[in-house]
Amino acid sequence: MKKQEEIDIKPEINPNIFSEFQRINREREKEALREIPILEAKNVSKKFGDNIVIPSLNFKVEDIVGKSEIISILGPSGCGKSTVLKLIAGLIKPSSGQLFVCGNEITGPGMDRGMIFQKYSSFPFLNVIENISYPLITVKKIKKNQAFEEAKYWVDKMCLNGAEYKYPHQLSGGMQQRVAIARTLCMNARIILMDEPFGALDRKIRWEMQDLIAEILFFKPIQEVTILLVTHDISEAVYLGDRIWIINKGQLVYKEFLDRPKEMARISQGKKDFQEIVAYFNEKIDNLDIN
Fold this sequence. Notes:
By secondary structure, the chain is α/β, with parallel strands linked by helices. The protein has helices spanning 16-28, 81-89, 128-138, 144-157, 173-185, 203-219, 234-240, 265-268, 272-286; strands spanning 39-48, 51-61, 69-74, 96-101, 104-105, 113-116, 191-195, 226-230, 243-248, 251-257. The protein starts with 15 loop residues before the first helix and ends in a 5-residue tail after the last helix.
């Protein structure tokens, strides 16, 4: 009996992608960097009981002068992506090693870091203005009138006009996430940690949220901030990411720089060259040893 031929279903990777990565790397080397990294991990490990989630994590995120940056973090389920974010947020402590923000060791939560989760985190008994201004009043001790004025600024930036006095149950999922992002940005946090923030949204609303992030950070930047975005959506990671990190078994196994978007998410993500880059990272993840 004739042996059945194996079917090769791996996509062919366009060799131009590699020369494009080299070009982007050369451009990145010309950027002005501050002396102290915005974020650094030194031999960080994390165990839960006998389970070693992160064996030894090392990385350095340079602080680019006058520029925001998004680092998209990809990897298989259970690889430690969310654990890394929680360590940086100070919500959990490393079993060994150290993490630093602007040269200062992380010992717990701080105002220099904000976190946005997939599950909407607004207070149900507060309206939009009150939700956004809440940390300004309770943490920064800003007077209520001043905090409300600051919140109104973010209502406008987040396209929430007309909804400022509505309560969370009256808002769509996309609007609730805009409130969460506004509440974090109004604190002027230098680092924002986003754990699958758009995972519960449908594709159209997800594109709108990606466009909003690109608008406030890239096209019309409001403030300088570094975002670490955990996502399972490779297209989202490629569209928003200045860098791609791939994590497996708690270790940073691959990293690459990317160009910034020039068009709306729906348009960019439908183009052939964009889809080829997505296929490239998809293959990288498919080839990981996850056993």
